[in-house]
Amino acid sequence: MVEMNGDLRVAVMGVAGRMGRELVAAIRETAGAVVAGGTERPGSPYLGADIGTLAGLGAIGVSVTDDPLDLFTRADAVLDFTSPAATVEFAGLAANARIVHVIGTTGFSAADEAALAAAGRHATIIKAGNMSLGVNLLTAITRKVAEALDADFDIEIIEMHHSRKVDAPSGTALMLGEAAAAGRGVNLTSASVRSRDGHTGPRRRGDIGFATLRGGDVVGDHTVIFAGTGERIELTHRASDRGIFARGAVKAALWGRGKAPGVYAMRDVLGL
């Protein structure tokens, strides 16, 4: 159970990765939060290393472990940008420990989503395809624009990320697609077009299209296009610093302190 007195003790899953190090730095610069620990997979060369040193902050006296069960008993919140299988496992541990679980992982299956919903009966889960303020504002605006424009305006979502990203479309692109679909009053699953190749025929009225680009070290670019006859509206967010996601995740953990169990989104954290 999250204690209401003192600093929030925050653990980082996958702490030696690029995002894990950003999360450690964000915790260290946030008043009211302290680094409780961090995990890596068994056999990782980083086991036993000082977490602060890995993040380029200097030693903080907290070491990397491969025992999440022990860490979950000592933390008030965990930040998790790992993989779907690992996140589902961590959600179960968070449910048992009755703590806050902030999830930035993407690429979940329907079965994974069901497991996370079940964990949310006991854990305070805050889950978002993107933790940044700007993207969540873009999501809210996308829904409003989709509500205002009818299907004479075609909706296309373009996203680009670095060459090492393994899931597509990105969680953020899907989040934007869900917002557009909600604004239109349609189901994204039936309206979305994920790829086009060969002789596809004319575009169906009401489709929500996705285009995925990968290359270089792009942190994350997303554009929602509303294309009508004679005019086009483009809403764009470009991320140049992973720190925006890390700071959003820490903000979410602090917000979740003392909240009832359930599955929340960043729009809840930001009051959108």
Topology:
Layout: E1 8-13, H1 18-28, E2 33-39, H2 51-54, E3 64-65, H3 68-74, E4 77-80, H4 84-97, E5 100-103, H5 110-119, E6 124-127, H6 133-148, E7 154-161, H7 171-184, H8 188-191, E8 192-193, E9 208-214, E10 220-228, E11 231-239, H9 243-256, E12 262-264, H10 266-270
Parallel strand pairs: 1-2, 1-4, 2-3, 4-5, 5-6, 6-12, 7-9, 8-9
Antiparallel strand pairs: 7-10, 10-11
Helix pairs in contact: 1-9, 3-4, 4-5, 6-7
Annotation keywords:
272 residues, alpha/beta, 7-stranded parallel beta sheet, elongated
Tell me the number of strands. Answer: 12
Give the helix level as a range of percent. 25-40%
Question: What characterizes the major β-sheet?
Answer: 7 strands, parallel
Global outline: elongated
Which quaternary structure do these chains form?
single chain
What's the Cα radius of gyration?
Answer: 20 Å
Q: What would a concise description of this structure say?
A:
This protein has 272 residues and is α/β, with parallel strands linked by helices.
What does this structure look like?
It is a single chain. The protein has 272 residues and is an alpha/beta fold. Strands 3-2-1-4-5-6-12 form a seven-stranded parallel beta sheet, sandwiched between helices. The longest helix is centred in the middle third of the chain and has 16 residues, at 133-148. The chain is 36% helix and 24% strand. The protein has ten helices and twelve strands. The protein starts with 7 loop residues before the first strand and ends with a helix. Helix 1 (18-28) packs across helix 9, helix 3 crosses helix 4 and helix 6 (133-148) packs parallel to helix 7 (171-184). The mean pLDDT is 95.
